[in-house]
Amino acid sequence: MASQKLLGAIEDPPREGRGLAQNAGYLTNQIACNLGVPIVEGTFGFRMKQQSLLSFFSPPAKKPPTGGDAKEGTPATSAKKAPAAKPSAAKATPAKSTPAKSPVAKTTPAKTTPAKTTPAKTTPAKTTPAKTTPAKAEASMPRVELTPRAKPQKSYKDVLGSSSDDDADDDEPLTKKRKRLTKPQSKAIAISDDDEEDEWKEPKDVVMVESDDGSVSLASESEEDVKPIQKKAKTKSPVTKKAPLKAAKAPTKETPPAGSGGTLRQHDAWPWLHAERMDMKKRKPSDPEYDDRTLYLPETFLSKETPAMQQWWAVKRENMDTVLFFKVGKFYELFHMDADIGFKELQLNYMKGEKAHSGFPEKAYAKYSSQLVARGYRVARVEQTETPEMLKARGTKSKVVRREVCSLLSPGTNTISFLDGSTPVLRTGVASYLLALKEEETSYGLCLVDCTTGAFVLGQFDDTRQRDRLRTVLAQFHIAEIVHERHGLSKETKAVLNHGLATSTCVRTELKAGAEMWDATRTVRELKSAAYFAAEAWPSVLLACIDSDGTVKADKALAIGALGGCVWNLRRSLIDHELLSLGQFATYTPPDASSELTQRYVVLDGHTISNLELLRNNYNGTRQGSVLEQLDKTITGFGKRRFEEWLLKPLCHVDEIHARLDAVADLIGLHHSVVSEVRSILKSLPDLERLLSRIHALGSAHRAQTHPDGRAIMYELASYNVRKIKDFVAALNGFKSAIRVVELLRDAVTAPVLTEWVESYPDVSEVLSFFDAAFDHRQALQSGTIQPQAGVDADYDDAANEVTTVLDELDVYLQAQRKALKCKSIVYWGTKREDRFQLEVPESAIGSQQPKAYELKSKKKGFKRFHTPEIRDLLRRLMAAEDRKEDALKDQTRKMFATFDMHYAKWLAAVHALATLDCLISLALISGQSDGYVRPTFVNAAADGPFLEIVDGKHPSIAASVPDFIPNDTTLSGSTPMLLLSGPNMGGKSTLLRQNCILVLMAQMGCYVPATSCALTPVDRIFTRLGASDRILAGQSTLFVELAETATILRHASRHSLVILDELGRGTSTFDGTAIAYAVVEHLLHGIGCRTMFATHYHSLVEEYIENDRVGLGHMDCMVDPDNDAKVVFLYKLADGICPKSYGLNVATLAELPDDVITLAGAKSAEFEDALKNTFACSELQSAVRNAAAASDGAALRALWTNLA
Questions:
Q1: For residue 378, which of 13, 96, 322, 1182 is within the disulfide window of CB 3.0 to 4.6 Å?
Q2: Could you tell me the pTM of the whole model?
Q3: Where is this region: Disordered (predicted)?
Q4: Structural domain tally of the chain?
Q5: Does residue 1134 sit in the same domain as residue 1173?
Q6: Of 1115, 1134, 1153, which residue sits at a domain end?
């Protein structure tokens, strides 16, 4: 708001000990000088040209009342008042508004007496003085107390130590304790000149306050709550304490909406915003085509708003799903419903008044925007893109400067630029993706983009009824935002997106079919028209989707359509060109698309990734306790992203697995000498992959010329420029450090993978040498500008040479004039641009014969100063050269970034190489420094079939936190590929199943495993069916979920797969469950023949395979107290044979069920067992009688009768 502009314009606080006139004049002078407005001498020392600053967002002024207290021109009350002092009524007469004069433009000095204060004469209204105490009176103008905050000085080494992620204002504590603003500014930019707006009204005197977190509040000053400027009072009058800031007026009887601070605001009562809400096309929410991103505004309402608020509404009505950070002066303002969000999420206090309004300084943008984005909001940054001078030059009737949306951030479109803050997820180095999805029947097209690196992934595939491949995509990638066509998703797909742990909280954007979610043909047309790629440099992935005649291939139409929706969303966020122009496209192929053992990587579907808790735990969806947390020891951001990819893509080919294991073994042996130094270098590197994307955007000529950020008026521009250069220098220094890594490994490694790594690392030393000599890094970091050295930029060199030449000619001309006038004391004088180089000549040297060419410009006692035609000609040449030099210097930073970006492919290859090395070192650390880890042995699948032999295996995550973890053996061979596992509840069956899958996965990604020995043939797929769960909201029961997942296994498993099933069939009756389990076991055993571990409580199922040599029987052992059958000790050890009981009553005891319930359950269990035994005995007798009768065996019949009797 305008008062904040006044605040930013003041550089020094009022001085203590000054009188009213001196302090008022001092403040007025400071404001006038910093805002660049005309000033003339007046009673207070200066008079300012009227600026409608305090009324920037106020409604049009009304005519003043004929009686009552005057609203304007009232003298400010004393800082300290006697209790008996009362203001007298002021009689105001209506007067015509005079825009050219300020209410304080012409005043009379206030005479301070012990009893009363003489009023200052004001225009346009006259007032009656108010009696005050002997304390000094204050002028009736905004008063600001200043508390400068000192900044610690950073050394050159400190500046290079971190990237711009650390430059956010996160170090300022978030507290509700309010402090007085402001901080002195190094420069001021003119604020909108509204001297023609005589309809704007000036509010009461205000005080601007800022908290430690950068938030700003505005509070009116009344006669009862004025805080004195002076820190120490010399009078003994009682001091009235300032009332605490309040959000607004007292709460009304109506229930305030959430986030409104307990008070109903203006926007809470607007029916067109709530009950009668419509979109811009006047469609109600009940309309299927209703667009909740837009809002219909009644013209009657809009016409009553100030021009500035009309400008705000023009942006807001088209972005109702977005929080606007609206720039006013040096502050970002939040209004109405956005201010409610600021109050609720950012703890920004409301400013006084019925209008919800809050704000914060420009420097706090990164902090607050990142907080909202992390909570799932969209944030638009609306910047001022012209100055008042530019507004006047436009010759428009508009009273407010132009503003434009310069950025739209969301969880999926955060590029972490020099302005934007990083969310907690992005700070961990994790890749966060925007997913655009297009569906047609059971086929999907998808486009994934990581906006921090500009990496796109494009794919199309057919899916099953259960959407198994879609679930796998959602498990493989960290999805932050989903974009899809309105009414374009089936209910099955919506159920997957709505109820998945990873996607249920994602930000969702629905696009209009055709207009926003483009079809394939329009997408290609838009890509061409926007010229994201050079004509001959289209990414190969996109070219593979297009036929020779320019049409999109039928089997790629959905993928290109998904890309169209993604591009539209990126274009709305104003980052489409900077990301697409990188051309980093990859193809997504479903893991199960290849035939057995022909693919390079192991197939891990979404169920397996979730059930094994590879990336996130199943408790709260965080990384804590996951396999990734246990294995990932990488120390670079790009290394962490690569390691996550390795974990989800274990190798299938034996040769590649052995090669990676050899590299890990080599690094283990070098740890104490080379690896420790390499790791320290890697630790010092910034996130080079993300920096490359930032530098590419900053070096783009297209962005500099067309992006609204290039027109934005930024008050913290100097600090932003320093951030840009700091990122650039950090990238250069990072790549220089990486050269040292190559040198350390060159003669130390022997493994083929590492020697190939050293040889293939790109040679960037020559390019780095160029940038070392191109500019002074230290000077650039300090000034925020890059001044090129000679030979780097031809335009700059030509201009600089011309400046030097002209200066030399001026020096020669000076020597000639000294010689002509025979006076060596002649010098050049002058600093103003057009009046420089005046010849300052002693009057004694000229005498009465002044040269005709000498034109008098100025003089001082004993000297005269002249210009000559030669000097004017040289000065014109000098100014022209200086202008050309300045123009070249302005664009020099961008040009340097663009030069760096020309080698993007080489830089990216170096980053990928460093990421691979970081991952190999991580595997070496976990393999070499963990107790009990052993190198696995791999063999190609023999004629006898796939096998798995693990001795004393442990679960890596649990064993790391449980010192006495019990190891177990597992053997699955070609002759015995299946293990039926029984045992008591809580005996460790599920842990053993997961453990074996994780050990296989670790082995095939090239890591040692926690076991005494491990030998196996490669696995092509890992399938898991664990736990009992239902999807109520998706309309799927427990049994349905179990059988759907099992169906996926039976369809896709091969003889080289590893399958684990836990208690299949529990969701139905015992007989049906046993029958289903039996049929599945039979199919896996005889139909597929893969390695399988099947845990069950169906003892009848286990008994079916007692004599089957292809099935191994095992159980989790336990020890029963001989004196108390209910007391069981779990041994967590795998033993041979069948477990006699499940010991469910023991679990009931541990769960502390009531004793009477447990007793009744025990009695009923015994009854059921007796009944089952009797039933089984009768069944056996009936079978024996039938057999004897069929064989006509009378002896057998008599024997049965005898036994029965």
A1: 322
A2: 0.74
A3: 57-266
A4: 5
A5: no
A6: 1153
